[in-house]
Amino acid sequence: MGKLEQDFLRRIVLRERDKPGGVAPGLIGHTVRFILDQGYHVVLEGILYSRKYGDMIRSLGRSHRGQTTYYYLDVSLEETLRRHQMRPQATEFTMDDMRGWYAPHDVLNVDGEHIIDESSSMERTIEYIAAAAGVPLNRREDDFQPTTR
């Protein structure tokens, strides 16, 4: 199973700020498409603003031969700020930065999009997504093999 972190590709690989005209959506789209074409499951994770990443994500869903499921973690600004304080990256940007970036209920509005409420624990959210994707949680990461080639 592939897990792609938007922040890693954008901030580390490209060293790009999340601004209009950036190339991150293209790199993310190509990377996801490549991994899917190899038969792997892919979890694309990140704060993927619909106005910037929505077209790319919807395009991936339309072109993918297999199951595509969309999840949106609907978290209030207050809870976002609280969770940020516990992250290793907490010192990389300020609470005021985060307030400026916050986009409430920024869903894709696609059929079957799952909205996960902030009251769902991380463990329960992982279990929910894994069950919907048909991915067992009791396997080692290196046990996951492509489904087709």
From TrEMBL:
Gene3D superfamilies: P-loop containing nucleotide triphosphate hydrolases (3.40.50.300). InterPro entries: P-loop_NTPase. It comes from the Bacteria. This is Kinase.
